[in-house]
Amino acid sequence: MRIDRRRVNMMRLVATVLIIICISTAQSVPIGTSGVMKQVEHLKNFQVIELRRYTIKKGEREHFAQYFESYFPEAFQQLGALAVGQFFEREKTDHFLWLRAFHDMDDRAKVNSTFYYGPLWKEHKATLNGILDDSDNVLLLRPVDPNRTIKVMPAVDPVGEPGGAHGIVVALIFAVKPNAVEQFAREAEATFAKYRAAGIEEVGLLCTLDAKNNFPQLPVRSDGPFLVWLGLMQDQRTLTDIFVPLNESSGRELQKSQLLTGATELIVLDPTKRSRLRWLPQ
């Protein structure tokens, strides 16, 4: 059997090139990691969530969102926190709601201190505070299950999503008796399962974090505890035809719970242009 030496030499050359590429890649990326993996690590396991509801001066809400999204999301991300989502409340046209996530309480203190005493906020705080009426309506929360943290989506792609974020988010806020949050969460799970089965994506199940406010310059509410369920859906039809009827029937039953201290608050939210939390096309 004759050996084609030219073919053998070519195969050796190809093998050598592949080995060089592999060695080069291994040297540039630590074993077991990659740029993608590092990014995923940074964007998961947030155990501290702030649900922040701002009251904006009349007619200035769109301007506030523009300022906010122009300057702040990347600043928080660089510091290790994340603006998970920004929204306009439908029923209150002067309300802007956003969710900020930290890995833990120590990170919350460090990030807030660095940001609010840093140059970016110093430059823009007069503008933002000038159109803010109130920023103290804040719930300090944690995931009910530490292994089921709040949903974190990729940043809006300005090329692939030129129209910005779409979809509808709903927040159900339950006022619960002291020391009964986890029991009520188990009680409410059948209702939440109905929402999921109907096509509403659960993106967060949160409850009041019982911890001292370690950045008191930013007040948080102390009238809890609360359980907060967050759901995401595609469009108005899903909200009107599916979620609302389900919530009216199941919500009535859930409201009978002896573990609640008041009426449940439903907030319908429209994502702002750069909100991470949004409906992603399949």
Could you describe the 3D structure shown?
- It contains 8 helices and 8 strands; from the N terminus they run H-H-E-H-H-E-E-H-H-E-E-H-E-E-H-E.
- The protein has 282 residues and is of the alpha+beta class.
- It has a single domain (45-271), classed as Alpha-Beta Plaits (2-Layer Sandwich).
- A hairpin with a 5-residue loop joins strand 2 and strand 3 (95-102).
- Helix 7 (181-197) runs antiparallel to helix 8 (236-255).
- The longest helix is centred in the first third of the chain and has 24 residues, at 5-28.
What's the arrangement of strands in the largest beta sheet?
1-3-2-8-5-7-6-4
Task: Tell me the structural class.
Answer: alpha+beta
- Over all CA atoms, what is the radius of gyration? 24 Å
Strand tally, please? Answer: 8
Strand content: 15-25%
Question: Could you describe the largest sheet, including whether it forms a barrel?
Answer: 8 strands, antiparallel, barrel
Shape: globular
- What are the low-pLDDT stretches, counting only 5+ consecutive residues below 50? 13-39
Helix content: 25-40%
Number of domains: 1
- Mean of residue pLDDT values: 89
Q: List the helices and strands in order.
A: HHEHHEEHHEEHEEHE
The first-level CATH class name: Alpha Beta
Could you please say which CATH topology applies here? Alpha-Beta Plaits
Task: Note the total helix count.
Answer: 8
Q: Which CATH architecture is right?
A: 2-Layer Sandwich
Terminus-to-terminus distance: 55 Å
